[in-house]
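To fix ideas, we now present one chain and its tokenised fold:
***
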Amino acid sequence: MSEGRSLKRVKLLDKVAGYTVLILMALFFLFPLVYMISTSLNPDERDIVRKMGSIEAFVPTTVSLKNYIGDQSADDPTLTENKGVIGRMNFGRFMFNSIFVVSCTVVAGLFINSMLAFGLARFSFKGRAVLVSLIVALMIIPFEAIAIPLLWLSNSFGWLDSYQVQIIPFIANPLYIFLFYQFFIQFPKSLEEAALIDGADWFKIYWKLALPLSKPILSSVAILHFLMQWGSFLWPLMVTRGEEYRPLPVAMQQFFGQYPRDWGDIMAFASMMTVPVLILFIILQGQFVNSVKNSGIFSGSAIEREGKLYLMYTQFFDPKCYENHEKEQQCIAYSENGINFEKFPDNPVISHPPTALFHDFRDPKVWRGTDSNYYCVLGSGENNVGKVVLYASPDLKNWQFETILIEMDPEEFGPTLECPDFFKLNDRWVLLFSAGFLTEGARKSYYILGDFRENKFYPSDFGEIDLGNDIYAVQTFRDKLDRRILIGWIHTPERYNYTADEGWAGIMSIPKTLHIQNGMLIQTPVKEIERFMQATVQIMDENTAISHLDNHFELEISGIKNSCRIILKNADDRVEIAISKKDLEITEIRARKVEYRDFYQVDSSIVKVQLFVDHSSLEIFINSGEAVCSWRIYPQNVYSELILKNLNKAERKICSISKQI
């Protein structure tokens, strides 16, 4: 208890120190603005010069708008010396020129730069990497290096002293193209594919799908582009001759050509120049902050309530950027159509873990209990011990910690458990969880069978969801037929990701129906897959080779005697599956080199295997679902030949599967 209070005290002191530093930094950046505005409101030029360089300069002796609108109390306000900035010069024209030039440049720049970046990010073509590298290289070339050639070119076009000479050369910008590229390269490929299936062309995907989802980066680029053009001085000075096309920064130079300099007028002019920038940032500040802060969300789950879909998810804050903030909090968003979601105004609904010693706290799985209350389990870690915790709520808004369901040995399961699920099946309770912080990059998903009574879980049977390391974050749901269906994510980050250039990683597994039998969790492919089965080929020979395979097929071999070997291959790639009694060995060869090899052992002799193969995954069901092994495969071309060896008298058949699956 005392240790927990000590940690809270340390966190409080850290928070106070952090806010103190932030306040000092804010004051540091505010000083020039305060000085500018204070000086612009001081009508006495002698007083301004006298106080310059001292703290008194921040507090004007008298406050007046004389520097802006002139001395209206003078005997003759129309005299030049009695006029303010607005009356002494054609300020309205300069302001219009700046707003028009900057607005055209920014709007056209957002369209052109984002479109170029979208094409670079979403299309794979030869030389794309070189082109991206060239764009990055262009960012380091200073404008001064190209100013003279650009002036000569503009003069040859007859553009000098015009608007277009200030707009067109600055529409495309390598920095903004790169920023958009970094955003679009992470754009979900599934959304893109869904739009193409619905008949959308690439421009429609860009305009209707990508841009609306790009508000944070659009706002960031708009602000950066606006600031760069709004303060542009050198180029407008080179290409404009009179007041008709000159922007505010060049007009401001007039004050520095007179003597003595009128600092009150200069600061008034600068203050009015600053107003549009402040207005723009106030309008776009929310989107700008969202684009630069290092936060995001971890996984969660959904539940229907009173005709609305509720999502419960983990809000993540990067500790490097939010040292005095809870790293992970649980939040709720809801939707009436399943597409547009609104966040709860009272988020987070669970603001902190049960104790201050928890270092991870995420991935809520929510469900409604038989008592009409709502429950959720969360993966967590406390003192480097992985745990699954249970919370309850009457309304999805107010949550109460109930109990710790399980804690696992950190030597075997790592410091944190993730993506839990908890449900009742065949009068037994099943707890699922994943362990992603194991040694040597291993990742596993597990199940525990047991009883749950009086708010306590009593475990009995334990096992792995999958033999391999490729399946993770398994979750279940109950369908209309009252079946418990399991789906997992198949991907190992530690292996080289050959699909990264296409903007995606990992796939979802085949849906599996769960049963409990002899203290084991049995997984079988859902019956609906049979609807997609097409031609069936019976294999009679002990050694068989089948060419011209479909890209998707199922292979079933039963009655295996001792051992057999299954090979999928093309000219340069192959996958070999060797079965020997209780042992399973899988080897992937890519470009004629061993890419990956692993060995597995099951509890009983392997007498039946069922394989589901498609472009990039291999799922093996052993002994009617007693064990499952899932693999990502990365052939350069689809496997064109299936070879079966040493089948003896085993029964076997192969079925092609429709691509619509």
Observations:
- Residues 2-40 form the longest helix (39 residues).
